[in-house]
Amino acid sequence: xxxxxxxxxxxxxxxxxxxxxxxxxxxxxxxxxxxxxxxxxxxxxxxxxxxxxxxxxxxxxxxxxxxxxxxxxxxxxxxxxxxxxxxxxxxxxxxxxxxxxxxxxxxxxxxxxxxxxxxxxxxxxxxxxxxxxxxxxxxxxxxxxxx
Length: 147
Known about the structure:
Blueprint: E1 31-34, H1 37-48, E2 51-58, E3 61-69, E4 72-78, E5 94-99, H2 103-112, E6 117-123, E7 129-134, E8 140-145
Parallel strand pairs: 1-4, 5-8
Antiparallel strand pairs: 2-3, 3-4, 6-7, 7-8
């Protein structure tokens, strides 16, 4: 009597993707053009707690740097002022930064390191706890505690 060959169980086939295929991103790495690169590096590294990463230089002068905090990367680049020195930055946008860290303690640490919190930690009606801060160029950040 012949025996049946055993076939391995195949995982179910994923559903067909919508056509035309929609955009699927894997990350977001904002690049901020700043007025004073050393001042911005000091703020993100020494005040907020980002870690400095790769640097970019032209003719020996630093023109940009990546700064990381957890899985988030920001790029800071020196403005060449081709669009004017009085150009307002950070208007109409805000970076929402999520953390599992204690938000009240984080805000206290930032303040102790010289940061000026725009709005202290508070519970929001939709169930999150957050605080607001602006960087030296006016870019806005909201720190949100994941619960």
